[in-house]
Amino acid sequence: MINRRRFLQTTIATGMLAPFVHAIEPFQRSAPRFRLGLAAYSFRDYMAHSSSKQDPVDGPRTLTMEKFIDHCAEWGVDGAELTSYYFPKDVTNEQLLAIRRQAHLRGVTISGTSVGNTFTNPAGPERDKQVAYVKEWIDKAVLMGAPHIRVFAGSVPKGGTLEQAKKDCIEQLEECGAYAGEHGIFLGIENHHGIVAEADDLVDIVKAVKSPWVGINFDSGNFQTADPYGDLAKIAPYAVNVQIKTEIKPRGAAEKTPADLGRIISIPRAAKYQGFVTLEYEAKENPWKAVPAVLAQLRPLLADSAAAPAAAADEKWESLFDGKGLGKWKETDFAGKADIAVKDGQLILPQGGDMTGVNLEKAPATMDYEVAFDAMRVQGDDFFVGFTFPIGESHVTLIAGGWGGTVTGISCVGGENASENETTQFKNYKNGQWYAVRVKVTKEKLEVTIDKEKVVDLELEGKTLGMRAGEIEISKPFGFATWRTTGAYRNIRWRKL
Q1: Cα 215–chain centre separation
Q2: How far apart (Å, rounded) are the C-alpha atoms in residues 316 and 310?
Q3: Cβ atoms 11, 163 nearer than 8 A
Q4: Are 439 and 425 in contact (CB under 8 A)?
Q5: What gap in Å lies between CA 401 and CA 349, rounded to an integer?
């Protein structure tokens, strides 16, 4: 395979100097800002109209773009990516406008669409056909109000060379990019195998295109290289759209494995990407079940992405869990405990006989501090958050999801458990959904928020605080526990107030 330096030398020598004189540089953005999107491709097998292969499903295929938009609204998704393969054949302008109207009425932004094109054909009728096809969908995107189209490069034609295929791709991207720019539409060339299977080749192509309306469609699941995460970092500065997949397959791997979503999100965050982060679900599990759960996992990651760099610098947060191992945490010696695991950046407390937990030998602080973490009940129907922490010389436990799944409060206040004191609340928690928890301790008050909802606002003057009698006491001075439930934690951090 030709390397990047050789490609540049070859293209300059063969008359391709001009495109590099005006090479595209990484997009300049001030700070990351993410919006959650969902691709219609996630439900490809259920679409009523399709120009691509569909796997068998139970029952008739009745999902239309209008119904897909309805589901996006119901799931609280900001943007819908309307994959072109699932529109009716010979879709009319009237139908496109009806879809645009439906999206507006449901409060959903049409984030973009796609074209199943090839840009590596040499000059001739097939190349002209592909360019015309992309331009046709640029016109359709304008009608729908979709600002972005993801396009594809293609593979080296039989008997051709990588150098020539790149040259042909650049020429067609420039022609279509000029047309797209006239209509205010971005083209994002996807890192999708073929001549863009390697990150350096893709960056070479994009940098050679003389159009401010051409960038990269960052797809987290498409690099099958030795270091997919590192290659994603190479293309992130040129991203005009980000797509998230739940699986990844490095070179040499026999099968796909679960992706580290937190690590993936950190890549466009580091590049200060601003725009849609769209879930394109491809795994084998039924999307009607899996997609809402993955969306729930993505929400706190995207929310954190907007503020995390500033928060880390301005508020001096310190990490208590690196996502790689237990570190200073030790397994709490509960009777009937299950084996603790660290996987995909998460601290997993599996369902045991009763309680399973971890704790630190020393709390990071005892007064005037704040702790933040994300927690999820993976399975079970009791408390997935049993967070024990100090308030001065006393210790208490924050319970979330206790007593059969809903009780939220502090054990103990005035000698009473979380289920029966002034902090008691009843809150429904969904399995498979992440919840952002913050606990703030000052001399005057204990405050707890879950997903920005204040669930505890306790004035401490005159209050008697303490632990519930029993095994939970060995969580002191600082620990997490679950009760007959599998819980997961991540992003555990603290700061001094």
Answers
A1: 20
A2: 9
A3: yes
A4: no
A5: 15
Rounded Cα distance between 374 and 387, Å, is 12
Q: Which two tokens stand for residue 312?
A: 């880390």
CB of 192 closer than 8 Å to CB of 222: yes
Residue 115 and residue 140 in contact, taking contact as beta carbons nearer than 8 Å? no
pTM listed for this prediction: 0.62
Cβ-proximal residues to 247 (8 Å cutoff; 6+ apart), any chain = 221, 256, 257, 258, 259, 282, 283
| CA atoms of 368 and 188, how far apart (whole Å) | 48
Hey, what are 54's tokens? 């569909």
| Tokens standing for residue 153 | 């490069």
Map residue 413 onto helix, strand or coil: strand
DSSP assignment string, 313-355: HHH--EES--SSS-TT-EE---TTPPPPEEETTEEEE---SSE
Burial 437-470 (b: 16+ CB within 10 A, else e): bbbbbeeeebbbbbbeeebbebebeeeebbbbee
Vertex 304 angle, CA 493 and 406, to 5°: 75
What are the structure tokens assigned to 77, written together?
A: 């998704």
DSSP string, 33-74: EEEEEEEGGGGGGGBSS-SS-----SS---B-HHHHHHHHHH
Q: How far apart are CA 388 and CA 119, in angstroms?
A: 59
* Rounded distance between C-alpha atoms, residue 318 and residue 327, angstroms: 14
388, 467 Cβ separation under 8 angstroms: yes
Q: What is the pLDDT of residues 34-92, one digit of tens each?
A: 999 999 999 999 999 999 999 999 999 999 999 999 999 999 999 999 999 999 999 99
Placement of tokens 């219609």 in the chain: 40
Q: Write down all domains in the chain, each with its CATH number in brackets.
A: 4-312 (3.20.20.150), 318-496 (2.60.120.560)
The pair phi, psi for residue 300, each rounded to 5°, is -65, -30
Question: Hey, CA dihedral for 111, 117, 123, 128, is it positive or negative?
Answer: negative
> In whole angstroms, what is the distance from residue 157 CA to residue 162 CA?
9
Rounded to an integer, the average pLDDT of 330-343 is: 94
Selection from 87, 83, 158 nearest residue 120 by Cα: 158
Q: What phi, psi does 404 have (nearest 5°)?
A: 95, 5
- For 352-387, write each residue's pLDDT tens digit: 999 999 999 999 999 999 999 999 999 999 999 999
Do residues 347 and 358 make contact, with C-beta atoms less than 8 angstroms apart? yes
Q: What is the Cα–Cα distance from 101 to 6, expressed in whole angstroms?
A: 50
8-state DSSP, 131: H
